[in-house]
Design brief:
- The protein has 217 residues and is α+β, with helices and mostly antiparallel strands.
- The chain is built from seven helices and six strands, in the order αααβααβαββαββ.
- It has helices at residues 2-26, 31-43, 54-71, 84-98, 101-105, 127-136, 167-176; strands at 76-79, 121-125, 142-144, 152-155, 180-182, 191-193.
- The strands form two sheets. The chain has a four-stranded antiparallel beta sheet. Strands 5-6 form a two-stranded antiparallel ribbon.
- β3 (142-144) and β4 form a beta hairpin.
Length: 217
């Protein structure tokens, strides 16, 4: 498999080289970038970049151009933007396959929670390309977000990596019991104490007892 991946990367680079002069005529300052995208489009003819948010699309194409020219690594897109109907279909199929909503959510999120529907998520291939993106994608705001999905990246601020897609919802549910709530709509991993949290009578802790106002006479 590694030999095959190396051969494919070499062939794709050989295809890209003669495309550089053609790309130069079209965009002199972006010749290598364009040649890379054209060559990868030939290597991964089924990929569809349409529907991605502009910043996510720019991050992905520039990241894979760096991987291509600097390290000879190919990165293709397996799945990017999905409309809500498609995401719903995938989710219901996973529910049918696994037998429960809870089990399905460990691999697929419903449409209202999916980064794919928002145009911010990218499923990439091959595994070698995903490893490159895991190591270097942060420079472009692309991060792997789940331990159990080596292929899934999102364009976002650096998140805390979660074990699986359903983990964010479970953290949110448990946090609510302690007055913790999600503050930012685009940061499912970010929770803070809600201003309206009910006072349960717990007293604050002080590292220095002298700082405790109850100790002041």
């Amino acid at each position: 498999m590694a030999i095959k991946a190396h051969v494919l990367a070499t062939v794709t680079r050989l295809v890209a080289m003669p495309l550089v002069p053609i790309a130069f005529c079209r965009a002199p300052g972006r010749a290598r970038f364009l040649a890379c995208q054209w060559a990868l489009g030939l290597r991964f003819p089924a990929e569809d970049l349409r529907g991605l948010m502009p910043d996510a699309l720019a991050a992905f194409t520039h990241a894979r151009a760096e991987a291509f020219w600097r390290d000879g690594q190919l990165i293709g897109l397996t799945s990017g933007y999905r409309d809500a109907a498609e995401q719903h279909r995938i989710f219901t199929e996973q529910v049918r396959r696994t037998g429960s909503v809870s089990a399905a959510r460990r691999r697929v999120l419903p449409a209202e929670e999916s980064g794919h529907v928002r145009g911010l998520a990218l499923d990439v291939r091959p595994a070698e390309g995903a490893r490159w993106l895991d190591q270097h994608g942060g420079r472009y705001g692309l991060y792997r977000v789940y331990d159990n999905e080596w292929w899934h990246f999102e364009h976002t601020v650096e998140p805390v990596r979660l074990p699986h897609p359903d983990a964010a919802a479970r953290l949110s549910e448990h946090g609510a019991a302690y007055g913790l709530g999600q503050i930012y709509g685009n940061e499912s991993w970010h929770d803070e104490l809600r201003p309206d949290a009910v006072d349960d009578g717990c007293q604050p802790m002080y590292a220095d007892p002298a700082e405790d106002p109850r100790m002041r006479l």
